[in-house]
Specification:
The protein is α+β, with helices and mostly antiparallel strands and 208 residues long. The chain is built from eleven helices and five strands, in the order H-H-H-H-H-H-H-E-E-E-H-H-E-E-H-H. The protein has a five-stranded antiparallel beta sheet with strand order 2-1-3-5-4.
Length: 208
């Protein structure tokens, strides 16, 4: 499947927000956005008035990049959220946060969602004790996520065993550090997601 392969720090600069796409590097002095928070491109940066539609588009793009999705994938999550009862924006965030690759990242098994997606595709992660190589698999309340028997034997898992001690899982996930397993104990909310976007603005964008 096609995917953006360019410099991800450029995306943070484009949308004017640190999206933490490169893991621990984003928290240190080497972060490109910290060094140069201006939009990419040469020449002088003119201040242009952005229309309401433009602001909505930027918010949608920011959310899409935040979770590392293509437009068709992201639109699919919106359409699914629209069919559910309740607030569409909250349902959208809940579906995005419940992706397997995002849960792996939230548990601290990976430094970024991109890295989480990679280890899932390599067959190093299990969902309810069954190897799953589909990053978009939806995790439900009560589901268990951990390393597969093959993944637990890798050097990467041994490294995670040490680095994860300094991390803390969000309140909607429980984490067993010794066993490198986690469980979803509640549905994620917008507050839990700590997202850098407003889902209601995204709903307005697609509703027009």
């Amino acid at each position: 499947m096609a995917r953006y392969t360019g410099p991800v720090c450029r995306l943070c600069r484009r949308y004017g927000e640190k999206l933490y796409l490169k893991g621990d590097r984003c928290f240190g002095p080497r972060c490109a956005f910290t060094k140069r928070p201006t939009p990419p491109g040469g020449g002088s940066q003119r201040r242009r008035k952005v229309s309401d539609r433009g602001l909505q588009l930027r918010e949608k793009q920011r959310a899409r990049v935040f979770y590392g999705l293509l437009e068709r994938q992201f639109r699919g999550y919106y359409d699914e959220a629209l069919r559910k009862t309740g607030v569409t924006g909250e349902a959208l965030v809940r579906a995005l946060e419940s992706r397997l690759d995002n849960v792996v990242y939230r548990l601290g098994f990976a430094d970024s969602r991109k890295q989480a997606r990679q280890i899932v595709r390599h067959g190093h992660i299990s969902l309810n004790e069954r190897k799953t190589d589909v990053p978009s698999a939806q995790v439900k309340v009560g589901d268990q996520v951990g390393f597969s028997p093959r993944g637990a034997k890798t050097e990467y898992a041994k490294t995670v065993q040490e680095t994860i001690k300094s991390k803390q899982a969000p309140v909607w996930l429980s984490l067993d550090i010794a066993a490198l397993r986690g469980r979803m104990i509640a549905e994620p909310t917008l507050e839990h997601a700590q997202a850098f976007f407003d889902p209601n603005v995204i709903v307005e964008y697609y509703s027009r």
